[in-house]
Amino acid sequence: MGMVIPGVRCPKRFEPLPPRVITIVGPFGPETIVVDPFLLAGRPPVEVISKKEESLPSEAPVGQVPSAAQWAAQQFGQVDLGDKRLNQRAVEMAVKMAAYPEASLPNQMGSRTALVGAYRLFNNETVTVEALLAPHCQQTLAAAALFPVVLMAEDTSELDYTAHPSTTGLGPIGDGKGRGLLLHSTLAIVPEGRGVLGLAHAQIVLREPKAKGGLHWKRTPEAQVWEVSAQAVGRPPEGSIWVHVSDRGSDIFEYMVACVDLGKHFLVRAFHNRVLSWEEGAPQAEEEEARHLLDYARSLLPCSEPEASYTVRVPATKKQPAREARVVMQWSEVTIAPPTQAPLEVRCHAPIKLSILRVWEPDPPQGAERVEWILLSSLPITTVEEALRAVDWYTCRWLCEDYHQCLKTGCRVEHTQLDEGVDICRLLGFAIPIAVRLLQLRQAARQTPDPPAKVVVEPLMVEVLAQRQKKDAESMTIGEFWRSVAQMGGHQGRRRDGPPGWRTVWKGWRYLSDLTEGARLYAKATFPSNTCSV
Predict the structure, then answer these.
(1) DSSP 8-state assignment for residue 321
(2) Helices 68-76, 84-99: crossing angle, 10 deg rounding
(3) N or C: which end of the chain has fewer CB within 10 A?
(4) Nearest C-alpha neighbor of 434 from the set 500, 502, 483
């Protein structure tokens, strides 16, 4: 039997949490930090104040990107590990890990004392990944409640520890010869601008070995991650639309039912050629190709409106080079019934009405694989605008894949030397929010370029960048700031290069952060009476 390592199952509603004043060890010694429990979209809820100040500072500028210390207090300041000392240690570890996410744990901690403390936390049986991630997930769902539409993009990724044969508590991955963990992530995304609010839910699962024979309807924990995610994210607040967006692995009736029963919507890529139900007298009821979902979708004629045909970029593969494809689309409304071989409680559920949308390449080049998407949506699709919106929303799911890449290459979680699966899960409790931060930095670099940089980024950081680039800090926009940061990370800025990726943005950001810290240290040494924030 497989084992489910506890994931983060957030409650449906959250009571407001009181602010907390904590002290962390920053670059300049202990610093007092006031923590707002909820991360509102685009605004850092923490501020660093000097020990000498008697009153709390005014609210930080709207939209400002927090420093590593601010971010750590924001994400872990409300963590509850059952012991105040553990809570404090978690924040201090997060500060150091967020500053250098790609470094090894000994390099991140910086001293033997801090490293021993980190290992003790990872080995502590009372510390769970749920507790470590709960504040982040709470903040994400609180932020999601502020927007009219939020996409819950989902994906499952394999974490490969085959190269660490002594590590225990792992399961099979890949073709069954590898060993590792499965991470299922639900990323909250605002479709306008593709802003990443954070992770709404996470599950870590051990894959069951393939059994020979057994019941046809036996469902493994791996197959239930989609349904568990829909239930854990919960019901959206009044006036908000939450849409779960997922790939072909989620074409599961129980998952779609869970979304609908909780007042949410789903956008799923079809995998099963399901039996369709038609009302008596419907013209499709007598058509052979209308008996099954995929057959019916492929029988639809292209929409004749000009906007229903457009060009997409097909990336290169091992078998074919990159190319452009002209695609068409068509949609229809269908009804699917519960699977006939499902358990009784599933078979008793009412049929689900949904829209199907097929996007395909009618004339692919010889030898090339045809471009085709068949999407299932609980939202109505009756116009070209609604069809194009569904396609655009589905492409937001790729941000979840980018996030997993940030986790693997940016945080290098597959290189850890921890020797037990449960300890790795505790490490993921820190790495998961850090990977989200890396992705958020990239998205910030691609969004609105017009506001002054000093409104969004720490003014000292803007001054340091302006001095290095020989530019005017007062007139620098946030767009110019991020372009310069990306160039410091190696982005050439040529027209054919496209927007900077998260790696170049992060390299530049880290380098600029080091320069800013150096300037802050110099100012503190030269003018010791002045107050410097972390």
Answers:
(1) -
(2) 140
(3) N
(4) 502
What's the rounded Cα separation, in Å, for the pair 481 and 473?
A: 9
- CB-CB contact of 384 with 303 (8 Å): yes
The angle formed by the CA atoms of residues 278, 281 and 282, to the nearest 5 degrees, is 50
How high is the pLDDT of residue 215?
Answer: 55
Sign of CA dihedral 130, 135, 139, 140: negative
Lowest mean per-residue pLDDT among 75-84, 96-105, 206-215, 350-359:
206-215
Residues 393, 7: Cα–Cα separation, whole Å: 26
The C-alpha atoms of residue 3 and residue 109 are separated, in whole angstroms, by 32
- C-alpha pair distances (Å), 311 with each of 230, 256, 304, 350: 33, 30, 16, 39
Cβ 461 vs Cβ 478: under 8 Å: no
Cα 275 to Cα 278, 279, 300, distances in angstroms: 10, 13, 17
Distance CA 62, CA 455 (A): 7
Its pTM surpasses 0.90:
no
**Count of other CB atoms within 10 angstroms of residue 196:** 26
- Residue of 474, 480, 428, 298 whose CA lies nearest to 5: 428
Q: Residue 477 class from Cβ within 10 Å (0-12 exposed, 13-18 middle, 19+ buried)?
A: middle
Note the pLDDT tens digit of each residue in 413-454: 999 999 999 999 999 999 999 999 988 888 877 776 777 888
End-to-end Cα spacing for the chain: 48
* Nearest one of 182, 185, 339 to 256, comparing CA atoms: 339
Angle at 50 between CA 24 and CA 509, to 5 degrees: 65
Q: In what order do the strands lie in the sheet with 20-26?
A: 20-26, 29-35, 46-49
Distance CA 264, CA 234 (A): 9
β-strand partners of 376: 268, 356
Q: Cα-flanking dihedrals φ and ψ of residue 398, to 5°?
A: -65, -20
Q: For 100-128, where are the alpha helices, taking DSSP H only? A: 105-109, 112-123
Residue 353 backbone dihedrals phi, psi, to 5 degrees: -90, 130
3-state DSSP assignment of residue 304: coil
Other CB atoms within 10 Å distance of the CB of residue 526: 8
* CA–CA distances in Å: residue 527 to residues 30, 32, 454, 524: 19, 21, 23, 5
Bridge-based pairing of strands 46-49 and 149-160 is: unpaired
Which residues, at least 6 apart from 282, have a Cβ–Cβ distance to it below 8 Å?
none
The 3-state DSSP class for residue 281 equals coil
Collapse the DSSP code of 466 into the 3-class scheme (helix H, G, I; strand E, B; otherwise coil) and give the result: helix
